[in-house]
Amino acid sequence: MQKTINSVQVHFGAGWQGRVVYNPGMGRLKIKKKGDVLPFRQTMAYRMMCLTVSIIAFVYTVYEMVIALAATNTLAFIISAVIGVGVAFTVFFNLDRLKYAKVSPQTAKRMNRR
User: Fold this and answer.
1) What mean pLDDT, rounded, does the chain reach?
2) Distance (Å, rounded) from C-alpha 49 to C-alpha 57?
3) Region 17-38: what's the mean pLDDT?
4) Backbone phi, psi, residue 99, to 5°
5) CB-based burial of residue 30 (10 Å sphere; 0-12 exposed, 13-18 middle, 19+ buried)?
6) Is 16:74 a contact under the CB 8 Å cutoff?
7) Would you give the DSSP letter of residue 35?
8) Nearest CA-CA partner of 90 in 46, 45, 58, 60
9) Is the pLDDT of residue 46 over 70?
10) Which of 42, 52, 55, 99 is the most buried (most CB within 10 A)?
11) How far apart are CA 114 and CA 110, in angstroms?
12) Cα distance between residue 19 and residue 3, in whole Å
């Protein structure tokens, strides 16, 4: 038995063993090969997200330091300064780790073309 669904001919055989015949004028459909799959934590996107979060945290701690200094709250200023030093360390740590981020071969090829 043969049916045409959206210009695709479907041949039904015994059971579910049917085969789909596309428009023969189209030729063979292209099959794209997928590259190697990288773990997300090793990609450039993950490293840049970590860097962005640490920069936002640093800006927030500097804001808290300024507010505490303006309010003459010494204890809050000292706490914000200590946290700010730690967050500044994480910013530079994430910048360093960004060097080691892996890029898929397909993306590297696309970057070389530009």
Assistant:
1) 79
2) 12
3) 59
4) -65, -30
5) exposed
6) no
7) -
8) 58
9) yes
10) 55
11) 7
12) 11
